[in-house]
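Our consortium's second objective concerns turning raw sequence data into structural hypotheses that experimental partners can test. To show how far this objective has progressed, the report includes one record in full. It was chosen at random from the queue rather than selected for favorable results. The single chain below, 96 residues long, was entered without modification.
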Amino acid sequence: MKNIYAIIKKPLFTEKGSSLKETENKILVEVPKDANKIEIKRAMEELFKVKVEKVSTISVIGKMKKFGKSLGKRPDRKKAIITLKKGEKLDFIEGA
């Protein structure tokens, strides 16, 4: 098993993420590309002391971008949408 502190990289604050949090009690976080759903669930439950109902993952391919005359590529990343059980609450801004 990996270190639980290395699995949850950072929370993602986006418009879609904030609407999911308000309406469906879901949290968006960025995770390593090699992390699986079981590890993500275990890390969330141990770090933030919340009950996780479901974990969905999304692999995002980095876009090709121009940097002046040369071409470059943004890094690939992986996002996780974590559904908390009914009655659970987690707010990264205010604290756990």
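The partners drew two points from this record. Residues 4-84 form a domain with the Alpha-Beta Plaits fold (CATH 3.30.70.330). The two ends are 24 Å apart (CA to CA). Both points have been shared with the crystallography group to help prioritize constructs.
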